[in-house]
Amino acid sequence: MADQLKEFLIGKTEYTLGLFRFFIDELNTFGVFEIKATKTMIVLQSTVPFAYVTQLGKNFIHIVLPFNQAFDNQLSFSKIANVPGTNQFNHHLRIYYTEDFNDEVMYFLKLAYEGNHHA
């Protein structure tokens, strides 16, 4: 698994890698979780998968949080999309700066981590 993660991170900018490391450090404050890399994304899992890093750009990381309801009227999410045929709503975050991990973002990351899909 570690090799898959290393392969996923190859060629990424040091800035983006720093954002990713900061993100993982912030999640470590919640408790234990696994990091699994596939060819197309990084999956973060506690009791269930709770976050997906779908893109590591030149200066950002893109994170998707799955919930059983849409949390509209939140400034942090760039997009909320219902997965067709399900009650899952994917909430998209694009993080450019460590400061983007504000109280609202941390609240929803913890909610996802704990498997509480309703605020």
How would you sum up this structure, described in words?
By secondary structure, the protein is of the alpha+beta class. Helices cover 29% and strands 29% of the residues. It has helices at residues 2-9, 14-28, 103-113, and strands at 34-37, 42-45, 49-56, 61-67, 79-82, 89-95. A hairpin with a 4-residue loop joins strand 1 (34-37) and strand 2. The termini are far apart.
Give the overall pLDDT as a whole number: 91
- Topology as a string of helices (H) and strands (E): HHEEEEEEH
Structural class based on helices, strands and sheet pairing: alpha+beta
Tell me what portion of residues adopts beta-strand conformation. 25-35%
What oligomerization state is this entry in? single chain
Number of helices: 3
Number of DSSP strand runs: 6
Q: From the alpha-carbon coordinates, what is the Rg to the nearest angstrom?
A: 14 Å
The neighbouring-strand order within the major sheet is 1-2-3-4-6-5
Shape: globular
Query: Mind summarizing the main beta sheet?
Result: 6 strands, antiparallel
